[in-house]
Amino acid sequence: MGYVKWSYDTLNHFCGDVFKAFGFSEEEGSIIKDVLLTADLYGIESHGMQRMVRYHKGIEKGTIHPQAKPEVVFETPISAVIDGHNGMGQLISHFAMEKAIEKAKTTGVGIVSVRNSNHFGIAGYYANMACHEGLLGMACTNSEAIMVPTFGRKAMLGSNPIAVAMPADPYPFFFDCSTTVVTRGKLEMYNKMGKPLPDGWALDKNGHASNNAPDVLANIVAKKGGGIMPLGGNEEVSGSHKGYGYGMLCELFSSILSMGVTSDKCCTFPDKTGICHGFMAINPAAFGDPDAIRKHFSEYLEALRESPKADGQDRIYTHGEKEVAAEKDRKENGIPVNDNTMVELADLCSYLKLDFGSYFEGYELPKDSKFFNGNY
Amino acid sequence: MGYVKWSYDTLNHFCGDVFKAFGFSEEEGSIIKDVLLTADLYGIESHGMQRMVRYHKGIEKGTIHPQAKPEVVFETPISAVIDGHNGMGQLISHFAMEKAIEKAKTTGVGIVSVRNSNHFGIAGYYANMACHEGLLGMACTNSEAIMVPTFGRKAMLGSNPIAVAMPADPYPFFFDCSTTVVTRGKLEMYNKMGKPLPDGWALDKNGHASNNAPDVLANIVAKKGGGIMPLGGNEEVSGSHKGYGYGMLCELFSSILSMGVTSDKCCTFPDKTGICHGFMAINPAAFGDPDAIRKHFSEYLEALRESPKADGQDRIYTHGEKEVAAEKDRKENGIPVNDNTMVELADLCSYLKLDFGSYFEGYELPKDSKFFNGNY
Hints:
The structure is a homodimer of 376-residue chains. Chain A is built from 12 helices and 12 strands. The first copy, chain A, has helices spanning 8-21, 26-41, 52-61, 89-107, 123-131, 184-193, 213-221, 240-256, 290-306, 321-333, 339-352, 356-359, and strands spanning 3-6, 71-76, 79-83, 109-117, 136-141, 162-166, 173-177, 202-203, 209-210, 227-228, 275-282, 335-338. In chain A, a hairpin with a 2-residue loop joins strand 2 (71-76) and strand 3 (79-83). In chain A, helix 1 runs antiparallel to helix 2 and helix 4 runs parallel beside helix 5 (123-131). The longest helix of chain A has 19 residues, at 89-107. At the A-B interface, strand 4, strand 7, helix 8 and helix 9 of A face strand 4, strand 7, helix 8 and helix 9 of B.
């Protein structure tokens, strides 16, 4: 499969028109496209243009209600519960994290739990919102069940990512990872390449470890059983119960505190996904001098990067460094978008009556183009 | 190596006298022994009687200062920083979590970061303190460096456990795990059994994966390099960067917010370990009706337990179930203490001028007994 690179400006312009055509205000459109394009700039391709089809189909099917506005249903000076009323995940989440930030600036901490939302893009975007304000930011979400609990054979938790961002120099700490060993996107990549899955990733419908990507993916789509292992695999010896536990932590802050839909039931309704999120912002000033804390943390990160490397390795990364490098590269050299995704964008244009060619001049759609349906 | 079982009352009586002899008040002694014996009751043997030698040697060497009192050096209604002044970790941590609980009851949340403490026992004990009050409790600690960051060959983070406890029926959710794939205690177990280490656990001094338990342990003791892999192993394909990230999260709440000693420097001083902790208590009442939240969570836990099992498995655990079962068994049938530990307890009695035989009547010390020094 080929890909083509587009400038940030091209994609930004395109996304702006898309979300306007969906009926979002200019401000709303700006938020949604910033979440998507940040993923692409960071090199998290699965959550940028490639994910547009999910929002398109969600709005078309009626599980995403573009006109819904988030509602604060419970609030204290340090906390809030928000009902997203099945609106666009990015807008609900931006609203929720702004509230957490506001509380953290006033009281030192803000914890916001959200129910009835939709896929919100990368969790790290919202952790970053707090980080940009000098705060420790955390974000998590549940999702359609894909993680099989230790000793199980049915997916009961989502990929349940947890993101953490904290100010530091020369760049912040930025950690954004699923609590499964990998995401479904990785399985799909191996499937497209026709390669067997690495050990320790996936389970077949009987709960046995499997390297068979097409079989595992087909079972996931048909909800026949199996799925992805927690971080730590499917045995206690490799720490399966730990990844499963971090997935539960995510569930606590998203679906439990908000009284929302747990992952085992997410995406089983005709008119909503029920996806839930959790957000936290913590003000370092509630613990002393924020500048001193920032310097202390930066020194530790530097010590980690400078520590001795394993034979054959020339670099130890601190979390967020790869994103900094990817952003620099993609701003200079463009954002790669693969042909499958381009076909999906063409379909989206046709749905919204936008002129695909006017955004992506000179691009020729593959002759045998079919929409890749596995992901929605 | 053999072991012998003692009743809870026998060990409780023994520990009471030990901590009294060290100069702790009765109340202080009660806290310390409750932390230790809870570990033994929960089946976390590495942190019960087996760990007594570490406190003994710490006090003897002067890295634990029994008379030190924790001091609140910074405080807001939702947060505090505590300097432990190198006192007993359990006392400092009990004090810190009580403060977090008090804040959570008043404001909805309490976050307490602690510097200059010592080994505090099981993290889960403190998470449980909050849980017993109907709150969501979290606790973490850094420690002497043992986790090698992804692509490194020198340990730069501790085993950095994160514990979470949350009220539920018929028993609470209780998660307490290191962010390394396993703890050093597991390596020592394999070493004693003369068995090769499982793949994905440990690194030799050059940063290569190693199954050689004696070599890895000798390098750790001599600080020659190598150590234990993060949860997720030493490759990105298995999620190494994720375990490393959770270790960093732990560091943030313990050593960073408190301006304390990061794991890479812990236990490198003659007069202190510098170990840091983080505690959080969150009041579900800050998010709605605590009873409804508890019921909602209990139902999800039940759904997890009842979900289909993998071929060959007859049970899916939710976190904390194994501890409930172990506690029942040990209260009925006694707490196993191995012969090595018994020798260490005899040494402790001799140091404190206590009569070993009066506590452990009829027990015969192994004839070739030598103190196992690897762990301190």
